[in-house]
Write a structure and sequence with these properties.
Blueprint: H1 2-20, E1 32-37, H2 41-51, E2 56-62, H3 66-78, E3 85-87, H4 93-100, E4 105-108, H5 112-124, E5 128-131, H6 139-152, E6 156-158, H7 166-176, E7 183-191, H8 195-198, H9 225-231, H10 239-248, E8 257-264, H11 269-278, E9 295-301, E10 306-312, E11 324-327, E12 330-333, E13 338-341, E14 351-352, H12 354-359, H13 363-372, H14 380-394, H15 402-409, H16 411-420, E15 426-427
Length: 449
């Protein structure tokens, strides 16, 4: 009752605040003043896209690593842009940036455990947030994010770029056209051999050299990411898989997640990698890794669909997100790049999906393919930054909004709890408090973004 009362009052305040948000400096048709918080490899990708835009001024950069800041400043200079103000020198430099840089928006591309506090502070300062995945690391943290956004009305977008993958958007068009019939089952995940990323000495000359060091003082991702594999057992990176599935299933737009159950295999891959590359006497050979090599999560939906997510980052394997969309008339699977539609495909046989995907190419890709050429992750990084900036400039809802962010990201702490409690099935929080019943589709509905 207390939560319902709280949300009722904060949503009323949010409705007013959201309607009145606009860029602080130039107005909705002028240039947005944007800061980049975290100028590591991911932050530099976003920076590259921002620097290409005539409607954005990158006015501030923040990081504690000089080598990363130097690389980001070279990007700015190479683009012929004015040098932004640099904030560095302490772990709290980002607070100074939010207080002094007069930002309209900030891109957050820092280690996972920092996202919650940095996004909350930005929203409280009325600085729009484009946050890299994940949104937060604890269930309480996700509620804190949601409450802050509802109270302030500050725009928040999770920068989940896989929702913009070309085949994923084509399949979305097919789902909405009824090609697969009524949806029954969806699959996705994060199946990516990250052993070389998790064991990286931090030597810039060997960014992913396959070493066996982690926790180094250098800029390496192993400095922070590997520790999650030491301490935590769950689906640590769910949004690449669940984001497209949620859009296909209209989650929060007439549907919602209702229950979740997770399982984890034994943990062997990371220890084996250390021993093979560093020997049994290497100090990291004594580390006990909590993260199971294969984590699977089953999710039930209000409208009767089931979803299966897989997290697999500690084993030798080619990269795959393992998408599967299955309905009453047929299915598509990305792992074999094939499709089968009853009555149109050869009976009981797969056919190549490419022709179907080309016929159903989404309007976003038809319109922006040339602009996306050369952008990171096969063009997806253009689309996610473009959507964030366009929504802000038009003062329109974020296509991947706070409700999407907290639900997709909360799969991590929920999966941890399910596994820790003997694979117990958990009720999935309804972060919308019933508003999923009437919320309208806004993601990729046309070519607005």
């Amino acid at each position: 009752m207390q939560r319902r009362t709280f949300l009722k009052s904060t949503l009323a305040a949010a409705a007013f605040a959201a309607s009145s948000w606009c860029p602080a400096e130039a107005g909705p048709r002028g240039k947005l003043r944007v800061g980049v918080l975290g100028t590591g490899l991911r932050g530099q990708v976003h920076l590259d896209e921002l620097l290409k835009r005539a409607d954005v001024d990158v006015v501030a950069l923040c990081d504690i690593e000089p080598v990363m800041l130097e690389a980001a400043l070279k990007q700015v200079a190479g683009a012929g842009r004015r040098k932004p103000k640099v904030y560095t020198g302490s772990d709290d430099a980002w607070r100074t940036m939010l207080a002094k840089a007069r930002l309209d928006a900030v891109i957050i591309a820092t280690p996972w455990e920092l996202h919650e506090a940095q996004a909350i502070a930005a929203m409280q300062a009325r600085v729009a947030v484009g946050c890299e995945v994940v949104a937060a690391t604890t269930l309480e943290g996700h509620w804190n994010l949601l409450r802050t956004q509802q109270k302030t009305g500050t725009p928040y977008m999770l920068l989940e770029n896989v929702c913009y993958r070309r085949d994923v958007l084509a399949v979305l068009a097919m789902v909405r056209a009824g090609v697969f019939g009524e949806l029954l089952h969806l699959e996705g995940g994060y199946e990516h051999d990250l052993r070389a990323v998790k064991f990286n000495s931090g030597d810039p000359a060997r960014p992913y050299g396959g070493g066996v060091e982690f926790g180094a003082k250098g800029w390496s991702e192993a400095r922070w990411r590997t520790d999650h594999s030491v301490r935590r057992n769950g689906d640590l990176y769910p949004s690449h898989g669940i984001g497209p599935c949620a859009m296909w299933a209209d989650i929060h737009r007439g549907n919602r997640f209702t229950r979740l159950t997770s399982y984890a295999s034994k943990a062997r891959g990371l220890h084996r990698h250390v021993v093979v590359n560093g020997g049994e006497q290497h100090p990291n050979a004594t580390v006990r890794f909590a993260l199971g090599d294969i984590v699977t999560t089953q999710i039930a939906c209000e409208n009767g669909e089931t979803i299966l997510l897989t997290h697999d980052t500690s084993s030798p394997r080619p990269y795959s997100l393992g998408f599967r969309v299955q309905g009453t008339k047929g299915l598509w699977m990305d792992i074999n790049q094939s499709i089968h539609i009853e009555g149109e495909s050869p009976a009981h046989k797969w056919e190549p999906a490419q022709a179907w995907l080309e016929r159903n190419d989404h309007p976003l890709w038809k319109r922006h393919a040339a602009s996306a050429e050369g952008a990171g992750h096969g063009g997806m990084d253009f689309f996610v930054v473009h959507a964030f900036v366009e929504a802000l400039r038009r003062n329109e809802p974020m296509p991947i909004d706070i409700y999407d962010a907290v639900a997709w990201s909360a799969i991590t702490p929920l999966s941890e709890r399910s596994i820790a409690e003997g694979n117990r099935t958990l009720d999935f929080p309804d972060f919308t408090e019933g508003r999923w019943k009437t919320r309208q589709r806004i993601f990729a509905l046309d070519d607005r973004y």
